[in-house]
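Feature request, filed as a ticket because there's no other form

It would be nice if the structure record came with a short human-readable summary line next to the tokens. Right now we just get the raw output. Example of a typical job, pasted below so the devs can see what we mean:
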Amino acid sequence: MSNLEFLNRAVLSPTELEEFCVNAMLKAGLSREHARVTAKVLVTTDTWGVHTHGTKQLRGLLKNVRDGRLNPKAEPEVVREAASAALVDGHYAMPMVSSTMAMNLAIGKAKKTGVAFIGVTHSGHFGAAGYYANMAAEQNMIGLSMCNVEPFMTVPGAKGRVLGTNPIAYAVPAGGEPTIFLDIATSAVAVSKVFAARARGEQVPPTWFVDSTGHPSTDPFKIDDGAMLPMAGHKGYGIAVLIEVLSAVLTGSAVMGEVQSWVLDLAEPPNQGHAFMVINPDVFMPVETFKARVDAMIQEIKSAPKAPGASRIYMPGEMEWERREKALREGIKLPPDVVANLQEMAEDWGL
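Raw output as currently delivered:
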């Protein structure tokens, strides 16, 4: 069965999808190790049902490789280091590789010092921030991850694009309950959701973005000259500024208008910055005690009186874990736009 026939199946196994992505990256010149790290990030994201940030992203990333904006042979390098902090130069390697390395470094340092912060410079689009936060949770620690992106969001009082939709994620390990995790853009929604709606021929809510005149729009085609709205107004704006400082200003990466879009046909590399933080609960109390306390908190939240018409209260990340369990059990059902994107990528690289 050819790769394209494999993609036409209604349901794909995560293992097959991962192998397909690895093969594409090998064709693009990545090492098998780097390809596997990247594929795991993207396919895991698809199992969560977050298809805007899963394997759909690979075609654009490999276009960056072909255009010389990412270096398939590069190896991320620690260039500055202290006991509980470090700066990683990604050298424009595949961003998932630099990010995974940085979070593993943060985890290792937090085991020794209790808290760690790792910044990454000279990188690009790292996919879903939640993947890296969950790496820490898998080691019984609290993880945070974030990055800056090119300006695509307006701010209160402005009309055009000022800041990126800078995403942030956290993950908190629990005992018997699923890991709590949240992965959000600081815009009302991720920009990719507007483009996904456009590909499907659908309108979007008027609370997502404004057009070139600064007025709310439901036409996803108007995003080309428009700007995303920050989530919760000044609150999303304020958090986006913090992320810009931690992931870009502090790491020496491109800031705001200096950031080059990873999706456009540009010559310069993106130079996005990333930041990863890990907190080791064992510094404060035995890990099992901490996880039991998290379980108790979760149970209290979920046992709250239900609003009319509500049958269940979900914790952050709970829906994603349930989707992942189903995907691992039954396979992944990719949306048509993702399948089409992967088919085009296969053709790009002659798979």
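Something like this underneath would help us a lot:
The radius of gyration is 20 Å.
The beta strands are 77-82, 85-89, 115-123, 142-147, 168-172, 180-184, 209-210, 227-228, 272-279.
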